[in-house]
Design a protein that fits this description.
3 helices; 6-stranded antiparallel β-sheet; globular; 182 residues; mainly beta
Length: 182
């Protein structure tokens, strides 16, 4: 496994080695021992989630508030996404800043997003399958989010067409209205 240093503290871009030949490829996509080694502590994932999206579907920006805040490990099994995390940690020197990466089935990269971040993505191709592990169970009473196109955050989404966004996500607050959630 290869780990890449990235711009906002706590986010980690992971890439597992791929072994390919004329039949296709083989790739480990998760190793608990390697994750624990990277963080110097045990990270326990308790739930896996998966979504299927067509091109231009935007999902997010979502988070769960304490006491059920979630860290996520995001990967793409089919297609491509532009994956985004926004720092919502109070007192962080990168509060309100975002970072984004292309994750695809082909490049095999995964993004670890710690607690304290909002997460979202746009599907760059039809039939994109995104799966992610989380460190706490879904708790509707802790569900939260921030508006995907909030100009205060200023995410530069590489939209392949007109964005397709759920009604719920269109009605999320902007960063200025959000307040301290972590």
């Amino acid at each position: 496994m290869h780990m890449e240093a990235i711009r906002i503290g706590g986010l980690i871009l992971l890439e597992y080695k791929t072994y390919g030949d004329d039949r296709g490829y083989f790739r480990e996509t998760f190793r608990q021992d390697e994750i624990n080694k990277i963080f110097g502590r045990e990270i326990e994932f308790v739930q896996d989630n998966e979504s299927l999206s067509k091109a231009s579907v935007v999902r997010g920006l979502h988070f769960q508030r304490p006491p059920h805040a979630q860290a996520k490990l995001v990967k793409v099994s089919a297609g491509r996404i532009f994956d985004v995390a926004v720092d919502l940690r109070p007192g962080s020197n990168t509060y309100g800043r975002w970072d984004g990466y292309e994750l695809s089935a082909e490049n095999g990269k995964q993004l670890f997003i710690p607690e304290g971040f909002a997460h979202g993505f746009v599907a760059l191709e039809d039939n994109t399958v995104v799966s992610y592990k989380v460190t706490d169970y879904y708790a509707p009473e802790c569900d939260g989010g921030v508006l995907w196109d909030d100009p205060v955050i200023g995410i530069e989404w590489p939209l392949p067409g007109e964005p397709i966004v759920s009604g719920k996500d269109l009605n999320l607050p902007g960063l200025a209205e959000l307040g301290n959630v972590f």
